[in-house]
Amino acid sequence: MSVQNVLNKIAENNIQFVDFRFVDLAGRAHHITLPSTEVDAETFVNGVAFDGSSIEGFRGIEQSDMVMMPDTESVFIDPFTDHPTLNVMCNIHTPDGERYDRDPRSIAQKAEELLQKSGVGTSAFFAPESEFFIFDDVRYESGMNKSYYEVDSEEAAWNTGRKEEGGNLGFKVGVKGGYVPVAPTDTQQDIRSEMVRVMQEAGLRVERHHHEVATAGQAEINFRFSTLTKTADNLMLYKYIVHNVARQYGKVATFMPKPLFGDNGSGMHVHMSIFNGDEPLFYDKGAYANLSPLAMNYIGGILYHAPALIALTNPSTNSFKRLVPGYEAPVNLVFSKGNRSAAVRIPIAAVTPKGCRIEFRTPDSTANPYLSFAAMLLAGLDGIKRKIDPTALGYGPFDTNIYELSDEEKKEIRSVPGTLDEALDALEADYEFLTEGGVFTADFIENYVAIKRNEAKAVATRIHPHEYSLYFGC
């Protein structure tokens, strides 16, 4: 969309405000709003200034001036503001006009540029399945003398005896009993449908929605695949709509990977493929799962670099509460067709040549989508460049339920890192694939690791409530 088309959209829709947005290292959006009367063609040339020193991981106060450069291809009308508002995603530039090398969105774009320069293909397509919970109430506190959390849901298994409903209406969702039931067990059909309606109005192509496995309101909405940066933009829009529609219904949505003990967590399974023009490069009819040698090398790169990759795709301490056996979590660094216990699954049901893809099941939605998608692409490209054979390295295929293998059979299967610190150790030891073509910089990695180490330390040094159960009577 040209600048003039954006200005026309502002005029035609009586837009009163234009909201300029960027994304920080953690994957959270920030915004500055201008009256539409202050927005003209020069705004899209000169950008919008902001204070980078107030954003964690960006710049010190002595170099705080930064600029948001609007991307005219990313505009949408905000569905939640009382005053007509047009939202625009932005890249971050330095005052001298250079792309800021810690800007997640610019990193995603540089990864796409590297793909095109590599000669492998022209486009990488991504489709995340970002699961979430819808709760009725959430409370938490962490202080010197107390620490607790409590969430509640009218659907929850623990509420079969609750009286506050004015007479318990039953039909609660059992632990691991929430996969696609109909009403009245599924109480959230309408709120998910409203989320879909708003997404469609905002420009997302939504394919389906349903209740997910866990009790207490776990949900999934799937939107159509697109190119790397566009999909990351779409995921930011998706999360924005989920959070705000939930709020309109008097509920709260969270993409936290493991908000409940003892039931399935929320993942972000990411489907990927590479095309050269209109030609799909992952398809080879008759081969294992109809995958081409190039696709197998891509899988090899993902699994070879997975321990380091997970520092970007699962970048929270809570991520590793989900990555434990027994809750459909893909903790095994292997590949398989149709097998959801593997880190990399190749979908085989109703797949066409253009729909042939791989699914990396380990990530979750605490990941910054721009950084994590870029890192996945770079790991896959490194596998293609080095012709990494996942079978030769013992990554599979494993077409049995890995959770049911004996301990002896599991010995040769690599597992994901057990903690955020372990993943960060792996990233520090293996990040050259990320700096290929200058997509990520060593400075970015060092800065990112330092921030995440602080998060891990903040959790590790605090007293956990369960420690009182274990140790208070010693």
End-to-end span in angstroms? 67 Å
Number of helical elements: 13
Under CATH at level 1, the class of the largest domain stands as Alpha Beta
Mean pLDDT: 93
The CATH topology of the largest domain comes to Creatine Kinase, Chain A, domain 2
Unreliable sequence segments? none
- Name the helicity range: 25-40%
Describe the structure.
The protein has two domains: 3-100, Ubiquitin-like (UB roll) (Roll); 123-460, Creatine Kinase, Chain A, domain 2 (2-Layer Sandwich), CATH 3.30.590.10. The chain is built from 13 helices and 18 strands. The protein has helices spanning 3-12, 41-46, 104-118, 189-201, 228-248, 293-304, 306-313, 319-322, 369-386, 407-410, 420-429, 442-460, 465-471; strands spanning 17-23, 29-35, 48-51, 65-70, 76-77, 85-93, 123-135, 137-142, 147-152, 206-211, 218-223, 226-227, 252-254, 268-276, 279-280, 332-337, 342-346, 358-360. Strands 7, 10, 11, 12, 13, 14, 15, 16, 17 and 18 form a ten-stranded mixed β-sheet that branches. Strands 1, 2, 3, 4, 5 and 6 form a six-stranded mixed β-sheet that branches. Helix 5 packs antiparallel against helix 9 (369-386), helix 7 (306-313) packs antiparallel against helix 9 and helix 7 crosses helix 11 (420-429). The model has no long low-confidence stretch (mean pLDDT 93).
Which features does this protein show?
13 helices; Gln_synth_I; ten-stranded mixed beta sheet; Ubiquitin-like (UB roll); six-stranded mixed beta sheet; alpha+beta; 2 domains; globular; 474 residues; Creatine Kinase, Chain A, domain 2; 31% helix; single chain; 18 strands
